[in-house]
Amino acid sequence: MSLLLSPVEMAQLSLKNRVVMPPMCMYEVQKEDGVATPFHFAHYGARAIGQVGLIIIEATAIHPDGRLTNQDLGLWNEEQAQELKKLVASLHFLGATVGIQLNHGGRKAKDAVQAIAPSASRFNEEYQIPTEMTIATIKQTQKDFIEATKRAIAADVDMIEIHGAHGYLINQFLSSLTNQRQDEYGGSLKNRYRFVKEIITEIRQFYQGSLWIRLSLSDYVTEQNSLKQWQTLAQWLEADGIDCIDVSTGGLLDIKPNIALHPGYQVPFATALKQAITIPVVAVGLLDDPGLCEFLLQTKQTDLVAVGRGLIRNTNWLADAAKELKDTNFKMYNHSYFRGQK
Ligand SMILES: Cc1cc2nc3c(=O)[nH]c(=O)nc-3n(C[C@H](O)[C@H](O)[C@H](O)COP(=O)(O)O)c2cc1C
C-alpha cells in the first residue's frame, strides 16, 4: 500500500488519500455574478469521482473588486453562498472532502472598479494604480474576509484556505516589496503580518474547523523575505491557529523567474517550512509523477502533495497512479468504475 493513496488524519481532516487538488481558477462565471455554474459542478464532480483526497475550490473572491477577473467565483452575497452550498453537497454526495480558497486580489484585481493595495504601486502597466488602503479600508476588507468565511462555513465546506500567496492582497501585505506603509500594517515583519493575523484571530473566535493558508515562499529576487523570515511567519501562523501551510512560490512581481522548472522544484520550500513547525505542509508544482510523490512522502519532505495541471489533464490521475505504484488497495469510485481499472 502506498502512502500517496492511503488514508490519513491530518490538519483536522480525514482524508482518503494524500492527493490534494489545489485551487485553480477556471474563469467560468460568464454572468459575472460570482455564482457557481453547472460547469463547476461537473468540473469538481469529475475530480470527486476520481477519488481526489481533498478538493480545494478555486480562489473565490470576498469582494467584487477582489476578483482577478469578473469571471471569478465570489462569496460576498447570499446567492453565491446558496449555490456554493449545493456544490459542496453534491461533492459530499460523491464522497469528497471539500475546501475553498478565499481571496482578495489587491493590486492584481484586473477588472476591479477601483483596485486597492497596501501601497499605491501597480503590478505592471496593464494593471491599475491601486488606491492605498486606509485603516478604514483595511478593517472593512478584514470584515469581508470574515463574512465570506462565515458563508463558507454555512455552505458546509470541510476546510478553508486563506490565499496568502501569488502576489494577491495578503501576500502584498506580507512583503516589503509591495508594502511600504508607515503605520502598524507596514515596516517590520510583525507589522506586515498584522493584516492576516487579525483575520485569522477573528476566524478562530467562531470556527474550530480546518483552517489553512497558502504562501509564496520565494519572489525570485534577492530583496525578498528570507527563508528564515518565512519560517518565523509560519511559526506565528501555527501559534495563531493555522492547521496546514500550502507552499507555493512566485506571483508577487512581474518577472519571469530565472529558474529551471523541474518536477518538485518548489518542494525544498515546503520542506524548509516543515522543519520549523509542527503542523503539516503541502508541496505543489509539477508533481505529476506518482513515484516522485511517493518518494517525497516516504522521505518526509512533505505531508501532502497537490497535483494541479495533472488533474486538469486527467480526472483519473489517481487510478493511473495506483497502477504505476502497484497499489492494489486503491479503489475507483464504484463497481462500474472498477471495470475500467486495469
Ligand atoms: C488554470 C490554473 C489556475 C490556477 N488558479 C489558482 C488559484 O485560484 N489559486 C491558487 O492558489 N493557485 C492557482 N493556480 C496554481 C495551482 O494551484 C498550482 O499551484 C500550480 O498549477 C502548480 O501546480 P501543478 O504543477 O501541479 O499544476 C492555478 C494554476 C492553474 C494552472
The CATH architecture: Alpha-Beta Barrel
Distance between termini?
A: 17 Å
CATH class, anyone? Alpha Beta
- Provide the CATH topology: TIM Barrel
> Would you tell me the structural class of the helices and strands?
alpha/beta
What proportion of the residues is helical, as a percent range?
25-40%
Pfam family, one: Oxidored_FMN
Organism: Enterococcus eurekensis
Protein name: NADH:flavin oxidoreductase/NADH oxidase
Cofactor: FMN
Keywords:
11 helices; binds flavin mononucleotide; two-stranded antiparallel sheet; alpha/beta; eight-stranded parallel β-barrel; 13 strands; 342 residues; TIM Barrel; 16% strand
Descriptive notes:
This protein is 35% helix and 16% strand. With 342 residues, it is α/β, with parallel strands linked by helices. It has a single domain, classed as TIM Barrel. Strands 3-4-6-9-10-11-12-13 form an eight-stranded parallel beta barrel, surrounded by five helices. Strands 1-2 form a two-stranded antiparallel sheet. α3 (135-154) packs parallel to α5. It is globular and about 60 Å long. The chain starts with 7 loop residues before the first strand and ends with a helix. The relative contact order is 0.14. Flavin mononucleotide binds at residues 22-25, 58-59, 101, 163, 165-166, 214, 248, 284-287, 307-310. InterPro entries: Aldolase_TIM, OxRdtase_FMN_N, YqjM-like. Residues 4-327 form the NADH:flavin oxidoreductase/NADH oxidase N-terminal domain. This is NADH:flavin oxidoreductase/NADH oxidase. Its cofactor is FMN.
